[in-house]
Write a structure and sequence with these properties.
12 strands; two-stranded antiparallel sheet; binds cytidine-5'-monophosphate; 5 helices
Length: 224
Amino acid sequence: DAPRPLAGRHALVTSGPTHEAIDPVRYIANRSSGKQGHAVAAALAALGARVTLVSGPVRLTDPAGVTVVPVETAAEMLAACRAALPADIFVAAAAVADWRVDGAAEQKLKKDGGGPPALRLAENPDILATLSAPGPERPALVIGFAAETNDVQTYARAKRQRKGCDWIVANDVSPATGTFGGDRNSVHVIRADGQEDIWTDLPKTEVAARLATAIVDHFGNGKI
Ligand code: C5P
């Protein structure tokens, strides 16, 4: 039998984009495919963790042995994450929309000749920062992702501190890298204790497997 060093652990993972309604038929979205987050959920489940995967709209099959909670908006994603706590491990891999439409229309907006509507945006909750905040329900290990197009390490180090998470997995998503929607990734793993690992040009499944192994090591090979 395969070793199950994360048996008895609950891992909560977010994945995919969020969709923020403009009206009943239109929404704001982003280019996240969910491939990396889903791969992390699968890798943690493969090592024996009980995994709850809170996912925005994606075109992916549910990973085997994982409980998937489908959501659309950032607000729904935060509520689903809160409902899934407590967790030992939280991995925030979702590309959560920073803004939603303030007061989305309840009926389809019409081209009425009055010109295009102005959309007023409101800030979404930061799920990673919320779940990183100290408190009895804070997961023991909180890992965020950071998609940057330049100065990846510098921005990612600052982001880890700002969010209050333990590790940040930072990737370069400048268009030339093909990371968004692609099957490969290059990442910097940045930790609170200063340790940094660089994993270059790997399949997203291999990035997930390495991250899962690093999580096992962090918990001392499954020992509580
Ligand atoms: O601030 P930024 O979006 O670059 O941070 C990325 C990290 O924060 C990712 O781990 C993402 O899942 C998380 N995040 C979140 N809620 C938000 C925005 C980002 O959980 N509203």
